[in-house]
Design a protein that fits this description.
The complex is a heterodimer of chains A (186) and B (78). Chain A contains 10 helices and no strands. By secondary structure, chain A is mostly helical. Chain B is 53% helix and 0% strand. The chains are: A mainly alpha (186), B mainly alpha (78). Chains A and B meet through α1, α2, α5, α6 and α8 of A and α1 and α2 of B.
Chain lengths: 186, 78
């Protein structure tokens, strides 16, 4: 395997990987820490990567696993999405855009993690269901299901922010299907 | 002479083209498919916004340093 080509793949994947980490963790500095740890792991494990296979899915899976470990270790210390929202809002000069972007970011943070991951990978990062299933180590059907539920949850929230609190606490929305009950228990 | 079918005075129902298709930032349509497209565009835009930022220097340094070290190791071995 050529070291240069591995490095090229790594460098090319970093911008979207960082964006994924940013919206996944809801925290800029945590996202960069996670990105750095993932890069170190990828470099250490580069002999395990088979050239010609999907590097993007491989590196996203490393970051996903790092994040799962982080959640397990810091389940009571998950930080606010505010510093991401503030940054995003600072990029938008238009007031209506600011409000809507803020709502999207806030509602994203209200999604169950497994739905947020699936939505970000498929709709944000532009991965196929197949690739996202590879990253999340689940079936394509599960990814489709999670994305669908995430979209409907976001739709309800965006269409009527007045009932967002009610929705976010409703069991029918919060509870996932049986296989999603233990998304990180593998 | 027989007349053909009368034309209805009621205009055909046409789904309005959402301004948001041009990414004007307006709120999403009320149908789920329209919402899905709207949401995807917003998420893409958010991703692109972050992805266009420079990668932190310490991460770039890390990649370059380790890559350089590996090249040196390969040179030493050969």
């Amino acid at each position: 395997m050529s070291a240069d080509s591995f490095q090229d793949l790594l460098l090319a994947s970093l911008p979207k990987l960082r964006a994924y980490a940013m919206f996944l963790t809801k925290d800029r500095s945590l996202a960069d820490d996670l990105l750095q740890e993932s890069v170190v792991r990828a470099l250490n494990a580069k002999h395990q990567f088979a050239m010609g296979t999907n590097f993007n899915a491989w590196i996203h899976r490393i970051l996903h696993n790092q994040y799962v470990n982080y959640i397990r270790q810091n389940s009571r210390n998950i930080q606010s999405i505010d510093n991401i929202a503030e940054h995003m809002l600072s990029l938008r000069p238009d007031q209506e855009q600011k409000v809507i972007m803020g709502e999207v970011i806030q509602n994203l943070s209200d999604l169950p993690i497994n739905q947020r991951e699936a939505l970000l990978l498929v709709c944000g990062s532009g991965m196929s269901y197949d690739e996202a299933a590879d990253v999340l180590n689940c079936s394509i059907g599960t990814v489709k299901s999670r994305v669908w539920r995430a979209r409907r949850h976001m739709e309800r929230m965006m269409m009527n922010d007045n009932i967002s609190t009610e929705i976010s606490t409703a069991p029918s929305v919060e509870l996932d299907c049986a296989e999603d009950q233990q998304p990180y228990g593998r | 002479m027989r007349e053909g079918p009368k034309k209805s005075k009621v205009p055909p129902i046409v789904q309005p083209v959402e301004e948001d298709d041009k990414d004007s930032g307006m709120r999403p349509t009320t149908d789920s498919q329209g919402f899905d497209h709207w949401l995807e565009r917003k998420l893409h835009k958010m991703f692109d916004s972050v992805a266009s930022e420079p990668i932190p220097e310490d991460i770039m340094d890390l990649i370059n340093r380790l890559d350089e070290k590996e090249r040196n190791d390969i040179q030493k071995k050969s």
